[in-house]
Design brief:
Distance between the termini: 38 Å
Structural class: alpha+beta
Number of domains: 2
CATH architecture of the largest domain: 2-Layer Sandwich
Strand order of the largest sheet: 16-13-15-14-18-19-17-20
Helix content: 25-40%
Largest sheet: 8 strands, antiparallel
Number of strands: 20
Length: 439
């Protein structure tokens, strides 16, 4: 199709590709690649478009694999699932429970393709868990040569390690096999605290449950944290979740819209909503995927960085100090999660246990909100702590800087160029982050 405009979920980035495709078969994808090579065009594959960056955008050929969304094989003995690249996390969570299976961990958003999550290193939280890439057993990849190769830790290992969190630059991921586990319930307990108290006891807290995360409310000392662990107890629902959602979505969007005219309201908004929604302890027991999922509310700008876990307290206290001194109307929450070290060349958690810190500025009713000063200050703080940006989210880092952040960056480039020497799968974003313009 021509004239199709692709936009990300937050409506912060868009593009109009020369041709937009929705193939239904592998043969269709191969035909598109052949046509692109013949016409000297580039190809990008787009997922749902949740990434708040231009990582999927292109002026050439864009492929959506949303119609290639079949579950191909479920092995209930080995607890594995193989699926086409258009399958979403939500679709897996609808299918796996009926087979007595579940994902071991996941991020908070279900409406994203698993392939997109693999390409960008989407993560949940838990010191014993890596990104979603750590659960991938193998993938089938269409290379620029039009050859389909299977990749795993044992077969085409270098391509596999470059494709996990590989930005979609090594080829088109056609299918993947994930390691799952027997279905389980999670017991989620919610607590309120202060930032200093959480930071003083951070090591004991992150090790006190399987999946620990916390949110700090800028302009306050307030923190809410959650402990999620497996349980054999039956489901327990919190009766006020519907009311909380109504408060959180409808009134919060209006209040942040109002604060765009009166920024001095922002600290009061943070304090009020913390007291309304998170001050008191709560608990819920439910199917794992339902506990993992977390409502994003409305459109927003997002920046997230992974830092060495030992730097967590220093970074958050520096950010708090900057917000207080600059009086910048930073929106809540600042979300903090934890991921174990992993081996993939471009994983922000490569070779180190990491803390991911996520900041947001909401876009109430789609309004553009000033955020660049906040982004620049946060980026400066996390860079000084040895941080690495989440690939799918907003950042201003370029190839020369990435080469110093990632010990295997050169190896990644070598593998990528060997499977795509003419840059068929590149776009402007990837040229910025992979090509050193100073050379």
């Amino acid at each position: 199709m021509q004239g199709v405009t692709f936009s990300n979920w937050a409506k912060t980035y868009s593009c109009t590709p020369r041709l937009y495709y929705e193939p239904t078969r592998i043969e269709d994808v191969m035909e598109i690649v052949a046509k692109a090579k013949k016409e000297r065009r580039r190809v990008r594959v787009a997922g749902i478009g949740h990434s708040p960056s231009t990582i999927a955008c292109t002026d050439d050929f864009m492929i959506s694999l949303r119609k290639m969304n079949r579950i191909l094989e479920i092995d209930t003995k080995r607890f594995t699932v193989k699926f086409e690249a258009g399958v979403t996390v939500a679709q897996l969570n609808e299918t796996l429970p009926s087979h007595g299976m579940a994902l071991s961990n996941q991020g908070s958003i279900g409406d994203i393709t698993v392939a997109g999550a693999i390409a960008t290193g989407t993560h949940g939280t838990g010191v014993a868990f890596g990104t979603i890439c750590s659960h991938v057993l193998s993938v089938d990849l269409l290379l620029a040569s039009e050859k389909i190769v299977e990749c795993s830790r044992d077969v085409n290992s270098d391509i596999f390690h470059a494709t996990m969190c590989g930005l979609g630059a090594t080829g088109i991921l056609l299918s993947a096999t994930l390691q799952c586990e027997p279905a389980f319930h999670l017991h989620q307990r919610q607590f309120s605290s202060t930032l200093q108290e959480v930071l003083d006891n951070l090591e004991s807290l992150v090790n006190s449950s399987e999946h620990f995360r916390f949110c700090w409310y800028p302009h306050t000392e307030n923190v809410v944290y959650w402990k999620n662990s497996r349980t054999s107890r039956p489901p327990v629902k919190c009766g006020s979740w519907f009311w909380d959602y109504a408060i959180g979505y409808y009134s919060l969007e209006f209040m942040y819209w109002l604060s765009s005219f009166f920024p001095s309201l922002v600290p009061s908004i943070a304090k009020t909503y913390f007291n309304l929604l998170y001050k008191h302890p709560r608990e819920v027991i439910d199917r794992s995927d339902k506990v993992f999922s977390f409502e994003c509310l409305f459109k927003q700008y997002v920046m997230e960085w992974a830092i060495p876990r030992r730097e967590t307290a220093s970074v958050l206290l520096q950010l708090k100090k900057w917000i207080e001194e600059s009086k910048f109307p930073a929106h809540f929450p600042v979300e903090v999660r934890f991921v174990k070290a992993e081996e993939f060349f471009l994983s922000p958690a490569y070779d180190r246990d990491s803390c991911y810190i996520n900041i947001v500025m909401y876009r109430p009713y789609g309004k553009d909100i000033s955020h660049h000063e906040y982004w620049h200050a946060f980026e400066k703080i996390v860079l000084s702590a040895g941080g690495r940006p989440h690939w799918a989210k907003d950042h201003g880092i370029r190839a020369k800087e990435f080469a110093g952040m990632y010990p295997r960056f050169g190896k990644y480039l070598q593998v990528r160029e060997s499977v795509d020497p003419n840059g068929l799968f590149l776009n402007e974003y990837l040229e910025h982050v992979l090509v050193d313009e100073s050379k």
